[in-house]
Specification:
This protein is α/β, with parallel strands linked by helices. 40% of the residues lie in helices and 13% in strands. InterPro entries: AAA+_ATPase, AAA_lid_NorR, CheY-like_superfamily, Homeodomain-like_sf, HTH_Fis, P-loop_NTPase, Sig_transdc_resp-reg_receiver, Sigma_54_int.
C-alpha cells in the first residue's frame, strides 16, 4: 500500500526543504510546488491526504488555493502557513475552509501534530466531504433549522477552526459541541466541557493549565489541566463570557502558541486541542462593554454556529417529547395524552429542550399509567408564547398544578445578625445561608423547576446546579 501523499506549496526553498524532510521522515510521500500554478497541476494529477500552502506565493495568495481546494477537492484538507502574529491570515483561511494552520517559524512538533490530525481525517472518513448519510445524530429534530444545523456540523467537524456556539440556555449548545467532536477525526480522544462560570477565579489557571508538585501549598502531586486532558480532542469552553479578563489573556496566549505551561513548570508543552466556545450572552456586546477581549473574541469566533430556540422549531416538539419519554420511561412506555402537544406548543420554553425534559420528567411523576395529561404539566402561565398561527390553539390554557412540597428556607442561624446594626459573626456562613435561602425560595416558587429558578435568579442552569451541589440542596424526590 502506498503512503499518504502530501502537497507542499512554498516558494521559500529552505522552508520547503525543511517541510519535505519532516514529512518524509514521517513516512509520507511528498510533492512540492513553488507556485499556485504548479500546485494546480499537481492537484489535477494526484490525490492528496493534505495540502500545505504558504500564504504568499509568486503568482497569487495561498487563500486562493484554500478556496479552490475547498470547492473542487472536497475530501482534501488544506492547511496554511502564516507569518507569526498574523492572526488575521489564520482566521481568514479558517473561515475560507482551511483545515488548520501553522505559524512561521514552523515548530516541527506542531507540524507533526497537525499532519497526523489531517491523516486521521482521511482514514476516518475515507476522504468524504460529508459524514455518511444516515449516521444517527444526537440532535433530534426534523425541522428545517435542525436539518441545516446537522449539515453545518458535518462540515465543521472536518476542520480545526474554533467554533463559537450561541443559543439560549438549554437549546443544545453542549450537545452540538459533542456532536461536532463525535463526527471529527478527534472522536477517539477526549471531549472536555468546562463551565467557565463555575470555576472560582483563584483556581482557574491551575484548572486550565495544570500544576507541578510543590507549585503552591496543597499541590501534593503533578496535575494536568483541562488543556492536557483534552489533548488530541476537543475542549469546550461553556459560558465563555464569564471568564475573568486576566484569564482571557492567558487563554489567548495558549491559543496563539498552542502551548501551555503548568503552574510551577519551567517549560511549555505543546497541546493539540480543538476549541469550541459557547455562551448564551451576546459576546460582541461583551466586547463593546469591555467585559470580553476583542482579540480573544476574534480568535474564538472564527465560525459561528447558532442554535434556534425551541419555540422557533415547534415542529420538533413531538419527536423530542417522544425521545425524552422513551429515555425516561423506557421505549414505548409513556406517551402524551390528548391536547398535551398543543398545550406544550403554546408555551414559550425559555429554558428550551432542557425545560421540556424537566417538564416531562415532572409530568411523568404525576401521570397515570404513563399517559401524560394536560393537568400533569406544570407550565408557568405567564410564560405562554405569543400567539403564532402555526402553533397556537385558540386559547392558551392556564395550568395550575399544586406544587409538590418543596423544602422551605430555614430561619437564619446564629451566624446571622440580630438586627440591621449587628454584623454577622461568621460572614462566609452567613452568606451561604442567604444564598441557600434565596435558591430555596426560587425553587419553591417554580415547583423545583431548576431551569425556571435559574431564570428567576438571572443565572445559568449550570451555575444553579453547581450552587445546589455546593450547598447540598436536593430536589424533593432526589
Ligand atoms: N436537538 C436536541 N435533541 C435532543 N436533545 C436535546 C437537543 N437539544 C438539547 N437537548 C437536550 O437538552 C438538554 C440541554 O442541552 P445542552 O446542555 O446541550 O444545552 P446548552 O445550550 O448547552 O445549555 P446551557 O446554556 O444551560 O449550558 C440536554 O439534556 C440535551 O441532551
Amino acid at each position: 500500500m502506498s503512503s499518504p501523499r502530501i502537497l507542499v506549496v512554498d516558494d521559500e526553498a529552505d522552508l520547503r526543504e525543511l517541510l519535505e524532510i519532516t514529512l518524509l521522515k514521517m513516512g509520507l510521500d511528498v510533492d512540492s510546488a513553488e507556485t499556485l500554478g504548479e500546485a494546480r497541476a499537481f492537484l489535477a494529477k494526484a490525490e492528496y491526504a493534505l495540502v500545505l500552502t504558504d500564504m504568499r506565493l509568486p503568482d497569487g495568495l495561498g487563500i486562493e488555493l484554500v478556496r479552490e481546494v475547498t470547492a473542487l477537492y472536497k475530501g482534501t484538507p488544506i492547511a496554511v502557513i502564516t507569518a507569526y502574529g498574523s492572526a488575521e491570515n489564520a482566521v481568514v483561511a479558517l473561515k475560507a475552509g482551511a483545515f488548520d494552520y501553522v505559524t512561521k517559524p514552523v515548530a516541527l512538533d506542531q507540524l507533526r501534530i497537525m499532519v497526523q490530525s489531517a491523516l486521521r481525517l482521511s482514514t476516518a472518513q475515507g476522504g468524504q466531504a460529508e459524514p455518511e448519510a444516515g449516521t444517527p445524530s444526537r440532535l433530534i429534530g426534523n425541522s428545517p433549522a435542525m436539518q441545516s444545523l446537522r449539515a453545518q456540523i458535518g462540515r465543521l467537524a472536518r476542520s480545526m477552526a474554533p467554533i463559537s456556539i450561541t443559543g439560549e440556555s438549554g437549546s443544545g449548545k453542549e450537545l452540538a459541541a459533542r456532536e461536532i467532536h463525535a463526527q471529527s477525526s478527534r472522536a477517539s480522544k477526549p471531549f472536555i466541557a468546562v463551565n467557565c462560570g463555575a470555576i472560582p477565579e483563584a483556581l482557574m489557571e491551575a484548572e486550565f493549565f495544570g500544576y507541578r508538585k510543590g507549585a503552591f501549598t496543597g499541590a501534593a502531586e503533578d496535575r494536568d489541566g483541562f488543556f492536557q486532558a483534552a489533548n488530541g480532542g476537543t475542549l469546550m469552553l461553556d459560558e465563555v463570557a464569564d471568564l475573568p479578563l486576566a484569564m482571557q489573556v492567558k487563554l489567548l496566549r495558549a491559543i496563539q502558541e498552542r502551548r501551555v505551561r503548568k503552574i510551577g513548570a519551567t517549560a511549555e508543552e505543546p497541546v493539540d486541542v480543538r476549541l469550541i466556545s459557547a455562551t448564551h450572552q451576546d459576546l460582541a456586546k461583551c466586547v463593546e462593554t469591555g467585559k470580553f477581549r476583542q482579540d480573544l473574541f476574534y480568535r474564538l469566533n472564527v465560525i459561528e454556529l447558532s442554535l434556534p430556540p425551541l419555540r422557533e422549531r415547534l415542529d420538533d416538539l413531538g419527536i423530542l417529547a417522544g425521545a425524552v419519554l422513551d429515555r425516561l420511561a423506557g421505549p414505548g412506555q409513556a406517551k402524551l395524552g390528548p391536547q398535551v402537544l398543543e398545550t406544550l406548543a403554546a408555551y414559550s420554553f425559555p429554558g428550551n429542550v432542557r425545560e421540556l425534559e424537566n417538564v416531562l420528567e415532572r409530568a411523568l411523576a404525576f401521570a397515570n399509567d404513563g399517559v401524560i395529561e394536560v393537568g400533569d404539566l406544570s407550565l408557568k402561565s405567564a410564560r405562554l408564547a405569543e400567539p403564532s398561527a402555526a402553533s397556537m390553539p385558540a386559547q392558551a390554557p392556564v395550568i395550575d398544578v399544586p406544587a409538590p412540597a418543596a423544602p422551605v428556607a430555614s430561619p437564619m442561624s446564629a451566624a446571622a445578625p440580630a438586627g440591621p446594626d449587628t454584623l454577622p459573626s461568621n460572614l462566609p456562613e452567613y452568606l451561604e445561608q442567604v444564598e441557600r435561602d434565596i435558591i430555596l425560595r426560587a425553587l419553591a416558587q417554580t415547583q423545583f423547576n431548576r431551569t425556571q429558578a435559574a431564570q428567576l435568579l438571572g443565572i445559568s442552569f449550570r451555575q444553579l446546579r453547581y450552587q445546589m451541589q455546593k450547598l447540598d440542596i436536593h430536589a424533593p424526590e432526589d
